[in-house]
């Protein structure tokens, strides 16, 4: 049975930890903080009779408590994919990811629980969305992503290590509904080009998905925006692996550049950083890709920032000040990427819609 927040007592936490920490004995558990984001996030302080290597502070991730949001998250399959990533792939990657201390999954309902390293206790910095990844940190992250991507290019490797990682799906009506709501109710807060790409996505979702996920495929994070990364003293780590998928490596590269860096830094450094990634990817055994080809793909990928902003453009009245600040910065990055890279022109050149 998957625990709820109120069930996180000494017995349930000990049960969750036992697989990774044999012999652990939990004396008492205190809830430090609960936050309702896409999922429910809980920070715990644990007093052990016998720690067996388990840390004093833990981060627990659970499905959202609100029933409708919980059903939506379950329908995406994000929870099971993230549990499998941390359980089977995380320790093999060259990327910095939170350490797994325990997990449980209900395959029928899609409910899950992940017990992870508490990054706050590890003295890592979790961005608040207002300040992006620095160019130096981005360069190191892209080199590590190149190793991760190159390793999973071989279908034989994926068959052994990540056979469960599926290709990108077709997208959903959920995103389209939110984008349409944003256009209908908050048009004055949205850039013209952003809206044009949103309307194109609503009309041609499947064609755009095909443009964003060309072969050759590898394993990608799929969603490396600023809210899904952390800074471990200059090294970027990657959180929230619920969208892990098979796709082009440039999905991660472009989305990281556009949505994890500040627009000013991206504009100054994105060409250099893209060239750095291409060289590192080739050095790790990936196919050599010309800069022009990669740049064209980068422009197309920039259009993905629009459906990725679907929850932001609803501008909910009940958003906390922190969520509102994060959402505004997220939308600003997406808008800048679409405009700077002429993502609409790239889509037109690929045969979708036409310039008026």
How many distinct helices?
A: 14
Give the end-to-end Cα distance, rounded to a whole number of Å. 56 Å
Instruction: Estimate the helix proportion, in percent.
Output: 40-55%
Q: Tell me the radius of gyration.
A: 20 Å
Tell me, briefly, the overall form: globular
What is the strand tally? 9
Mean pLDDT: 94
Strand arrangement within the widest β-sheet reads 1-2-3-5-4
Structural class: alpha+beta
* Low-pLDDT stretches: none
Topology as a string of helices (H) and strands (E)? HEEEHHEEHHHHHEEEEHHHHHH
Keywords:
356 residues, alpha+beta, five-stranded antiparallel β-sheet, two-stranded antiparallel sheet, 14 helices, 9 strands
Describe what you observe in this structure.
This protein is α+β, with helices and mostly antiparallel strands and 356 residues long. It has helices at residues 10-17, 67-76, 78-89, 135-151, 155-161, 173-185, 192-203, 205-212, 249-260, 263-283, 291-302, 305-308, 321-340, 343-349, and strands spanning 25-36, 40-50, 57-62, 100-105, 112-117, 218-220, 229-232, 235-238, 245-247. The model has no long low-confidence stretch (mean pLDDT 94).
Give me the secondary-structure topology:
Layout lengths: L9 H8 L7 E12 L3 E11 L6 E6 L4 H10 L1 H12 L10 E6 L6 E6 L17 H17 L3 H7 L11 H13 L6 H12 L1 H8 L5 E3 L8 E4 L2 E4 L6 E3 L1 H12 L2 H21 L7 H12 L2 H4 L12 H20 L2 H7 L7
Antiparallel strand pairs: 1-2, 2-3, 3-5, 4-5, 6-9, 7-8
Helix pairs in contact: 4-9, 4-10, 6-7, 9-10, 9-11, 11-14
In short:
This protein is an alpha+beta fold.
């Amino acid at each position: 049975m998957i625990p709820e927040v109120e069930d996180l007592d000494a017995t349930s936490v000990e049960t969750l930890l036992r697989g990774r920490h044999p012999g652990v004995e939990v004396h008492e558990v205190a809830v430090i903080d609960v936050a309702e984001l896409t999922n429910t996030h809980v920070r715990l302080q644990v007093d052990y009779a016998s720690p067996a290597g388990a840390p004093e502070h833990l981060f627990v991730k659970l499905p959202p408590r609100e029933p409708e949001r919980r059903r939506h998250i379950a329908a995406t399959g994000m929870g099971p994919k993230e549990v499998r990533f941390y359980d089977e792939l995380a320790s093999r990657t060259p990327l910095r990811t939170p350490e797994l201390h325990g997990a449980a999954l209900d395959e029928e309902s899609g409910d899950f629980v992940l017990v992870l390293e508490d990054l706050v206790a590890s003295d890592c910095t979790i961005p608040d969305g207002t300040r992006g990844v620095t160019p130096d940190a981005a360069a190191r992250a892209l080199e590590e992503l190149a190793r991760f991507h190159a390793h999973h290019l071989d279908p034989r490797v994926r068959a052994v290590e990540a056979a469960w990682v599926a290709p990108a799906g077709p997208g959903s009506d959920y995103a389209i509904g939110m984008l349409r709501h944003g256009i209908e109710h908050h048009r004055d807060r949205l850039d013209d080009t952003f809206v044009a790409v949103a309307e194109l996505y609503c009309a041609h979702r499947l064609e755009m998905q095909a443009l964003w996920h060309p072969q050759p495929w590898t394993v990608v994070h799929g969603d490396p925006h600023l809210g899904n990364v952390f800074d471990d003293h200059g090294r970027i780590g990657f959180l929230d692996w619920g969208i892990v998928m098979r796709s082009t490596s440039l999905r991660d590269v472009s989305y990281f550049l556009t949505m994890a860096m500040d627009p000013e830094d991206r504009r100054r450094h994105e060409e250099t950083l893209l060239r750095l990634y291409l060289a590192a990817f080739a050095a790790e055994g990936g196919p050599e890709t010309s800069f022009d080809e990669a740049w064209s793909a980068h422009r197309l990928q920039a259009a993905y920032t629009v459906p990725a902003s679907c929850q932001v453009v609803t501008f909910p009245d009940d958003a906390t000040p922190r969520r509102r600040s994060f959402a505004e910065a997220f939308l600003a990055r997406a808008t800048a990427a679409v405009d700077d890279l002429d993502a609409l022109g790239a889509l037109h050149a690929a045969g979708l819609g036409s310039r008026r």
